[in-house]
Design goal:
Layout lengths: L1 H19 L2 H8 L13 H27 L10 H26 L36 H19 L6 H24 L5 H22 L9
Helix pairs in contact: 1-7, 3-4, 3-5, 4-5, 4-7, 5-6, 5-7, 6-7
């Protein structure tokens, strides 16, 4: 319950910050803008990294589903069907329903490169503002940041369940890699001018909050850490 409360407070605090100080979004995006374009958007290596991350997110979800079905006969990676169902629901309800199914459809926030501040024609709108500056696949919030966060939670769950089977170094490296995924994804989306800071921060926080709520509902030990 404490984890849920802490993450709910984090979402509220972050939302309040970006709504009260909308210039923060513009200022952070301007760090990646050279006056005419976002150079990273055309970088082949960075775009290849983005493609690899998308494949990792989609592939991770597929593997979670496969492991969930297979675990009905015996535990897979020391995780039960309920454990795999938890991970699948994080993917389905987080990046799937809440982010891509609702927020990106209903909040018509233009992406940075589309806005007048960065050479486009659309007007800037704050986080959580209902806007009409984007028709589809809009900026608020970041689907890729949400997906990377769901994948990170899944990796952490697998690592935690197998902590006694791997070396402490491997465990720490695994956690580091998992936590790096949302950070790298957030950087790429901002550097390419495709998302504001509030898009990536709130996309990740909302998925973390969802995971904490699901864990509270699905597990008796509601104090168990997500990691």
């Amino acid at each position: 319950m404490r984890t849920v409360a802490a993450l709910a407070l984090a979402v509220l605090a972050a939302s309040g910050l970006f709504v009260t100080f909308p210039a923060l979004d513009i200022a952070t995006s301007r760090l990646f803008y050279d006056g005419s374009t976002f150079p990273i958007a055309g970088n082949l290596w960075v775009e290849s990294l983005r493609t690899a991350l998308i494949w990792a997110e989609d592939g991770g979800f597929v593997l979670v589903l496969i492991a969930g079905f297979a675990s009905r006969k015996r535990p897979i990676l020391n995780l039960s069907p309920r454990d795999w169902a938890f991970q699948a629901l994080v993917f389905l309800l987080g990046p799937g329903l809440i982010v891509n199914g609702l927020l990106k459809r209903l909040w018509g926030r233009a992406r940075p490169f589309m806005s007048q501040d960065f050479g486009g024609h659309a007007q800037f709108s704050r986080a959580w503002d209902f806007a009409d500056q984007c028709a589809r696949n809009c900026s608020f919030v970041s689907g890729e940041a949400a997906g990377a966060t769901a994948l990170a939670i899944s990796i952490c769950a697998v690592l935690r369940a197998n902590r006694g089977r791997i070396s402490p170094l491997a465990y720490q490296l695994g956690l580091g890699l998992a936590l790096l995924l949302p950070l790298v994804t957030a950087w790429q989306r901002m550097a390419a001018g495709r998302h504001y800071l509030s898009d990536v921060v709130l996309g990740s926080l909302l998925v973390c909050l969802l995971a904490a709520v699901l864990r509270l509902v699905m597990y008796k030990d509601s104090t168990a850490s997500l990691l």
